[in-house]
UniProtKB/TrEMBL annotation:
Matches recorded under Pfam families: TetR_N
Domain annotation HTH tetR-type: ranges: 14-74
Record protein name field: TetR/AcrR family transcriptional regulator
Keywords: DNA-binding, Transcription, Transcription regulation
Length: 205
């Protein structure tokens, strides 16, 4: 019987998942999803092959669980950052800054690659996790319009355009010593593109 770590079965499962997710994160960054195997992730995580199959029957299930966990954690951090920013324009700046910072720190294969590598149902489950993030951006824009800080535009259209502008990894694929300046430039670009009228709280913009 495998050794239980963490003092209980629940804690054991959580710790195993954390170790597996850490190993998967590293392999996604280094190799891309096509090169990921359950056996390779189990070996890197120090987890038995039988144990990892008990948690994840195939690599698609592993990737979906990983994205679900990462997305939940990210949305929580994003909500905290936006709530602390104050007025809608400052919230928009905080949103863009955090999206780009996270894009620079973490890497998943591009959407097209995932779409071709996964079954349609699996890819749809992963893509669905972008919805809370896109909705948060739409709310920020709508609040900015109501506050008179943004021009009257369709929030859905504007949110889609902003997401497209900051969604490319090439934006932050720069040397580490240039990243802060690049993100600052991107924030200013998005605010100009969104048609910012007034910004009572310009801290961090």
């Amino acid at each position: 019987m495998p050794k239980i770590i963490g003092g209980s079965l629940t804690a054991h499962r959580e710790q195993v998942r954390a170790k597996v997710f850490d190993a998967l994160r590293a392999q996604l960054y280094e190799r891309g999803f096509d090169a990921v195997t359950l056996a390779g992730v189990a070996s890197a995580a120090g987890v038995g092959r039988t144990a990892i199959y008990n948690h994840f029957p195939d690599r698609e299930s592993l990737l979906i669980a990983f994205v679900e966990a990462e997305s939940a954690r990210y949305v929580e951090r994003l909500e905290e950052a936006v709530a602390a920013a104050g007025d809608p324009v400052s919230q928009l700046a905080a949103f863009v800054r955090m999206q780009l910072r996270t894009l620079a720190e973490y890497h998943l294969p591009p959407g097209g690659t995932l779409a071709s590598a996964l079954a349609p149902s699996a890819y749809q489950r992963i893509a669905a996790h972008a919805d809370p993030i896109g909705e948060r951006l739409r709310v920020i824009i709508a609040d900015g319009i109501r506050a008179g800080q943004l021009p009257e535009e369709d929030p859905d259209t504007l949110a889609g355009m902003i997401s497209s502008a900051i969604g490319g990894r090439q934006v932050v694929d720069v040397p580490a010593d240039r990243l802060d300046a690049v993100i600052d430039t991107a924030v200013r670009f998005v605010l100009r593109g969104a048609g910012v009228k007034t910004a009572p709280n310009r801290q961090g913009i």
